[in-house]
Amino acid sequence: MSSQTPISAQQLHDVAAAAMVHAYAPYSDFRVGAALVATDGTVFSGCNVENSSYPVGTCAERGALAAAVVAGHRSFTQLAIVTDAEEPTSPCGMCRQALVEFAPNLQVTSYTTSGAEACWSLADLLPHPFTPQSLHLT
Ligand SMILES: [Zn+2]
């Protein structure tokens, strides 16, 4: 989805909610949709994709990130997540690490299908991250 004007919070929520519908979560029954906004406003969505070999499963957030990177995007401003959980869910540790590589200043908003929401900065969710600088490569 490409956007010339900044996407509204409601629109971003709707993209994540639409992605959640496609989640493949027969093992956990925990469906997640994510929508990631690139710096130029383009939005990429993802859903969790579980596997009978449990560790093979991937999260919605990393699905959206992979879709964005393969399209040539490497800088992001916002992430929206939608779940059926009772309380807004933050990205798991692995996704936090994946996202900080490209978007240390990312703003994360998590929604439940029942209408609750919470907002965090990725910097608050993952203080003292491991970064490319940690490898002394940059
Ligand atoms: Zn995750």
What is the CATH architecture assignment? 3-Layer(aba) Sandwich
> What summary fits the major beta sheet?
5 strands, mixed
Share of β-strand residues = 15-25%
Number of domains in the coordinates? 1
> At the first level of CATH, what is the class?
Alpha Beta
In whole angstroms, the N-to-C terminal distance is 32 Å
The unique ligands bound to this protein are:
zinc ion
DSSP E strands, number: 5
Strand order of the largest sheet: 2-1-3-4-5
Radius of gyration: 14 Å
CATH topology: Cytidine Deaminase, domain 2
- Overall geometry comes to globular
> Secondary-structure element order, as H and E?
HEEHEHEEH
Protein structure class? alpha+beta
The number of helices is 4
CATH superfamily caption: Cytidine Deaminase, domain 2
The parts where pLDDT drops under 50 for at least 5 residues are none
Average pLDDT for all residues: 95
- Helical content stands at 25-40%
Give an account of the 3D structure.
With 138 residues, the chain is an alpha+beta fold. The protein has one domain (9-135): Cytidine Deaminase, domain 2 (3-Layer(aba) Sandwich). Helices cover 25% and strands 22% of the residues. A 5-stranded mixed β-sheet has the order 2-1-3-4-5. The mean pLDDT is 95. Zinc ion (ZN) binds at residues 59, 61, 91-92, 94-95.
